[in-house]
Write a structure and sequence with these properties.
13 helices, Aminoglycoside 3'-phosphotransferase, Chain: A, domain 2, 2 domains, about 15% strand, alpha+beta, about 375 residues, binds 2-acetamido-2-deoxy-1-O-phosphono-alpha-D-glucopyranose, binds magnesium ion, Phosphorylase Kinase, domain 1, single chain, 10 strands
């Protein structure tokens, strides 16, 4: 970060923040955007901010991303006002530029945004126990409930066809031709498994496109570490990473929460024996979710367990695709990082299949 620090300071100076910058550090969480945390001091008071360079390889229209986020956070805030006195712990707050814009464009054309940093919270990469799984489910259900009266039509589709399984398979097929560094040699079993499971994967996207599943406002990235908990872990306070808030089926959100909150291993574990779907966490998670998601249709309810397997599948396909493309999309920290990620997702799918009847008792 050293060499970059001066440029970063210039970028930050464009945002409407009072006081002087006293500390800056990089944050390595997240696979997509580059993130930095600053501390400002003003009259002896310290405040922290999150600065992110929006990845415009992934998000082609960063300004639309920020318009969505402003609209959605304003809506959620309106629900919190009068009910909580710590609203800034429970909803992201955008800091605009000194010209009043949600994004600053730097000299290289990079798109930057700033939020108030939400301090005194904890995140988890795996769930610790059933009460925590319940809290997480409740938080995702509550997020959807808060947005259930929001006009989804007014949102931009920040990544079109994001959860379109058919398209994701086409992208995988195209990546077979790229075959970066002959990586195909390493993925025979994974590819075979994913191809065998291709048809089953279309159920959510097609159900939505064909009008059987209602379109609602969805987060689309409800992985567990996008939920901020209180320091003691006893309360799920805030859902962050609103980049992919778009119209969609709520099953995309139940799916990603199941994928990330019921697994016993890390998303990039290299020891696959650590990866399994914990049926007790699964049940608690879904019960927590259902306690808030009172708006579901019968078909939505009946597909919740399938959604967990489905979103795990789409992530397996996407990670494998990026591996074959030479790691263009997700940040990686080691040679076979995306392959390791694809393998954990496949292992999780297989374990879900093995436990299918038990998992269906969670509803
Ligand atoms: C990416 O931004 P981050 O790291 O929360 C990805 C999600 C995946 C996730 C897998 C815009 O999310 O779709 O589920 O990685 N986001 C985008 O960990 O592609
Ligand atoms: Mg994200």
């Amino acid at each position: 970060m050293q060499s970059y620090e001066n440029e970063l300071r210039t970028i930050i100076s464009h945002f409407a923040i009072e006081g002087s910058l006293v500390f800056l550090k990089a944050n390595k969480e997240g696979h997509i955007n580059s993130t930095f945390i600053s501390t400002f001091e003003e009259n002896g008071l310290f405040r922290k901010y999150t600065h992110q360079r929006i990845n415009n390889y992934v998000f082609k229209k960063p300004i639309e991303v920020m318009k969505n986020i402003s609209a959605v956070t304003n809506h959620i805030r309106s629900k919190l006002i009068g009910n909580f006195d710590d609203i800034d712990q429970r909803c992201l707050r955008v800091v605009r530029t000194r010209e009043g814009k949600p994004v600053h464009i730097d000299s290289e054309g990079g798109y930057w945004r700033t939020y108030h940093y939400i301090d005194n919270v904890r995140t988890f990469n795996t769930i610790q126990d059933e009460p925590q799984a319940y809290l997480l489910g409740e938080a995702i259900g509550n997020f959807q409930l808060q947005l259930s009266d929001f006009d989804g039509e007014s949102l931009y589709e920040t990544i079109p066809h994001f959860h379109d399984m058919g398209l994701r398979y086409e992208q995988l097929e195209a990546a077979l031709d790229v075959n970066h560094n002959s990586r195909l040699d390493l993925v025979g079993a994974e590819l075979q498994f994913l191809m065998q499971n291709r048809d089953r994967g279309s159920v959510l996207w097609e159900g939505m496109k064909e009008g059987r599943l209602p379109i609602r406002v969805t987060h689309n990235d409800t992985k567990i570490n996008n939920v901020l908990f209180s320091p003691d872990g006893a309360e799920a306070l805030c859902i962050i990473d609103l980049d992919t808030v778009m119209p969609g089926t709520i099953l995309f959100d139940t799916g990603d929460m199941i994928r990330t909150a019921t697994t016993t291993g890390e998303e990039d574990a290299t020891d696959l024996s650590t990866v399994s779907c914990d049926e007790k966490l699964h049940k608690a998670l879904i019960q927590g979710y259902l306690s808030k998601a009172t708006f579901l249709t019968d078909l939505e309810r009946s597909l919740i367990v399938e959604s967990g397997r489905n979103i795990t599948q789409i992530m397996a396909v996407r990670f494998l695709t990026d591996f074959l493309n030479g790691d263009k999309y997700y940040s990686t920290a080691r040679e076979n990082h995306n392959l390791d990620r694809a393998r954990t997702q496949i292992r999780l799918m297989q374990d879900m299949d093995a436990k299918w009847d038990i998992l269906n008792q969670s509803i």
